[in-house]
Design brief:
By secondary structure, the protein is α+β, with helices and mostly antiparallel strands. Helix content is 52%, strand content 9%. The chain has ten helices and six strands. The chain starts with a helix and ends in a 16-residue tail after the last helix.
Length: 295
């Protein structure tokens, strides 16, 4: 065998050995990548599952909430996702959460009886109200939507800095529960004429666009949650504890008892009791509104 042939065969053997070694290295690398890929895949799946669980059980705050809405952590909702419209000083010692429906007659009674004392407590810096409009009457009357539309309009008024005044106008013009007057956006827009500075194209667009339907619906979902699907309105919490309205024989004594309870929670001296006549509330009969419980 010539020297050239011997060298050629030696080179071929060497090349074959190198190829075999490279194949072994490649196979080992592929096995490692497969292991790493499998591990990464498991981690990704676990992460996705965790995110799904968190999404299902975590806060469900709607993407759109009224301007200056605050997380209400003392209103029965365990997570800080109960976004409420505040009235009063955020540093007030008593936080009064109120779930109410603009169509609810019991809520109308609450407002007519206790509005004067709670406004005075707000003015004194003792009380902050945290309002959650809900859709209880809609839920109890199939095919109606006035609670939802009125709640949306109230949120639009909040955007304009006119929530409290418009809130009061809605209750002052509250229809009977069997009448779905508030389902008309035109009616809600017309009522804004009673609030100085609210009758604007911006407010009208917000109302007609149903911008805050999701927020109002979330409020009702929260109310169902904290009442074990037995909602009633008004449902009230004071500093995180269920609050029962006074059930006195006259509006005057009910107002005085309401103020006394709030002052006690605040740890302050008793406030002057407001006059029942100043509120326009009746001076006889039960002052405590009966809840509108869903069936």
């Amino acid at each position: 065998m010539s020297k050239t042939n011997r060298e050629g065969k030696a080179f071929a053997r060497e090349r074959a050995a190198q190829l075999k070694l490279e194949q072994a290295r490649r196979a080992r690398r592929n096995r490692m990548l497969a292991v790493y890929g499998s591990t990464l895949g498991v981690l990704v799946v676990a992460l996705v599952i965790a995110l799904i669980v968190q999404s299902a059980s975590g806060p469900k705050t709607p993407a759109l909430v009224p301007v200056a809405a605050v997380a209400d952590t003392t209103g029965g909702v365990t997570a800080a996702n109960g976004m409420a419209i505040p009235i009063g000083d955020s540093n007030a010692p008593v936080k009064l959460t109120v779930y109410e429906d603009f169509r609810c007659s019991a809520c109308g009674s609450f407002e007519s009886t206790f509005q004067t004392p709670y406004k005075q407590l707000i003015k004194n810096g003792t009380l902050e109200m945290l309002i959650h409009p809900v859709t209880l009457i809609d839920a109890n009357n199939a095919g109606t939507s006035g609670s939802l539309h009125a709640g949306n309009a109230a949120a639009c008024a909040q955007d304009a800095g006119k929530f409290e005044a418009y809130h009061d106008v809605l209750f002052a013009n509250q229809p009977s529960e069997s009448t779905d007057t508030f389902s008309s956006d035109a009616t809600l827009i017309s009522l804004a004429k009673q609030v100085q500075g609210l009758d604007t194209k911006t407010f009208e667009s917000c109302v007609n666009g149903h911008k805050y339907f999701g927020w109002v619906q979330q409020n009702f979902a929260d109310l169902n949650k904290i009442t074990n699907n037995q909602p009633s309105t008004p449902t009230i919490y004071a500093n995180g504890t269920k609050f029962t309205l006074p059930n006195d024989s006259t509006a005057t004594t009910a107002q005085a008892d309401f103020t006394k309870q709030i002052d006690q929670l605040a740890g302050v001296a008793a406030s002057a009791s407001p006059s029942a006549s100043s509120s326009g509330a009746p001076t006889s009969g039960s002052a405590s509104p009966s809840p509108s419980a869903s069936q």
